[in-house]
Design goal:
This protein has 163 residues and is α+β, with helices and mostly antiparallel strands. The protein contains five helices and seven strands. β3 and β4 form a beta hairpin. It is globular, with a radius of gyration of 15 Å.
């Protein structure tokens, strides 16, 4: 079964805010946020993002992601990716990322996209590797417990076939 997606609106913020099931899930989705995530925190970050997208299954929002530009880099990043815990492991995460790649191609006319993932988020890190993303850098970030987490920057280049 395939996900339906659409650009998010203000009415979606409360539902999106409920997707991270604990502090760690929120840290992986939105490291600067304070748990529990609020619609206001989301609204503030979305102001500087593009193509904020909800992913829907059976008329219920089960995922979210957006695009952003980081510092002075040209290629967009996929950000704030979250999938409801009970829908993980079914390929929906890959579908979300592939949809956001398509949206980035359309919006930014780019031949590459980037993503940042915490190395301790092993399932998601592995999913990005399986989609062809390759590491190009790391950075240390402090989590909500005051512990250091390795943030891995990954990129994916794509060449369009011109037939």
């Amino acid at each position: 079964m395939s996900l339906v997606n659409r650009i998010s609106n203000t009415d979606d913020l409360k539902t999106i805010a409920e997707l991270p099931e604990n502090e760690m899930a929120l840290f992986y989705m939105f490291p600067k946020a304070i748990y529990p995530l609020s619609a206001e925190q989301l609204e503030n970050v979305i102001k500087n993002r593009f193509k904020s997208t909800v992913f829907i299954l059976d008329k219920k929002i089960i995922g979210y992601a957006n695009l952003y530009l980081y510092k002075d880099e040209k290629e967009p990043y996929i950000g704030n990716v979250i999938l409801s815990q009970k829908y993980r492991g079914r390929g929906f995460g890959k579908e979300i990322v592939q949809t956001m790649i398509q949206k980035a191609k359309e919006k930014f006319k780019t031949d590459a996209i980037k993503i940042a993932v915490f190395k301790s988020n092993t399932n998601v890190y592995g999913m990005y590797k399986s989609l062809g993303f390759e590491e190009f850098g790391t950075e240390s970030r402090e989590d909500f417990r005051g512990e250091q987490q390795e943030l891995v920057f990954m990129g994916l280049e794509f060449i369009e076939n011109s037939e």
